[in-house]
Automatic annotation (TrEMBL):
InterPro entries reported in the protein's UniProt record: Metallo-B-lactamas, NDM-1-like, RibonucZ/Hydroxyglut_hydro
SMART domains linked to this entry: Lactamase_B
Every Metallo-beta-lactamase domain range: 29-227
Pfam families: Lactamase_B
Top-level taxonomic group: Eukaryota
Native species: Cyprinus carpio (Common carp)
The name this protein goes by in its record: Metallo-beta-lactamase domain containing 2
Length: 275
């Protein structure tokens, strides 16, 4: 299957494109965001990487032919989980938070929580493809990101916000001028996952408190999440506040049990895959 068949996209306002993997039918299917700038273009998250994302972007002319863009496309992972980081190796420039650099550089498929089944891939990307052989390919980041870094696209800037909880290196990218938040898996319009190996509830609460304050300060109008549909500031406030309210002792106890089971299952799965 060609890259042009594997992906599909929508053009949104203000130089933003929403890309998805057509034949990955799962709640884990991540949103891929492409942002055009006057001097630098950025792709936020890269999906599974089963087909060439750069090839798709170029074949569809999503970057145009503006000679003012001096730098290669920069691919940023909001975190290194497999559904977001699988295609990072396809790019010349790669950025992730410093807490997850080693996991990506070492191809650590435990920390990337690689968990994919054949039934989620409804059309094989290549003859004989099998989910059990899928691995996140190692890549050494060229951009090591941390809180407060500003990614300059020329006519717009994205500020890195370290928002751990879902994973230890989870980030959001905030376009302050346009009041847009590219939130990765820190928050999306669904159940927020805090039971993975490197999840931490106390960190997640702090991150949600930051989000609530940002909404109260009217710093966010629109959220471009890591999964599902976009939403506005009122929904963001409710999602973040609801997580804080629910993260009590009972939630922590049940989450601890689920986290232990998930860690064992991931260890076993990735051990088999390595054989």
């Amino acid at each position: 299957m060609s890259a042009t068949d594997w992906y599909a996209h929508k053009s949104l306002e203000n130089g933003v494109f929403w890309i998805q993997e057509r034949f990955y039918e799962s709640g884990n299917r991540a949103n891929i965001w492409l942002i055009r700038g006057s001097h630098q273009d950025v792709v936020i998250d890269t999906g599974l990487g089963l087909r060439s994302l750069p090839e798709y972007i170029n074949s569809k002319g999503l970057l145009g032919d503006d000679s003012k863009r001096k730098n290669p496309l920069l691919a940023i992972g909001t975190h290194v989980h497999f559904d977001h980081s699988g295609g990072l190796h396809q790019f010349q420039q790669v950025g992730v938070h410093k807490a997850e650099v080693d996991a990506l550089a070492n191809g650590d498929n435990f920390e990337t929580v690689t968990w994919l089944s054949d039934r989620e891939i409804v059309e094989d990307p290549a003859p004989g493809w099998r989910a059990r052989r899928y691995r996140v390919k190692a890549v050494t980041p060229t951009h090591i990101l941390q809180e407060g870094d500003v990614i300059n696209l020329g006519d717009r800037q994205l500020t890195v916000l370290h928002m751990p909880g879902h994973s230890r290196g989870s980030i959001c990218l905030h376009d302050k001028e346009n009041k847009m938040l590219f939130s990765g898996d820190v928050v999306y319009d669904g159940s927020m996952i805090d039971w993975l190996p490197y999840s931490r509830i106390s960190d997640y609460i702090h991150s949600c408190e930051r989000l609530v304050k940002m909404v109260d300060k009217e710093e966010i109008d629109q959220v471009m999440p890591g999964h599902y549909n976009t939403f506005g500031s009122k929904r963001l406030h409710w999602l973040a506040s609801n997580y804080i309210a629910r993260a009590g002792a009972c939630h922590r106890a049940s989450t601890c049990l689920v986290k232990s089971i998930a860690s064992l299952a991931l260890r076993a799965s990735n051990s088999r895959s390595a054989c």
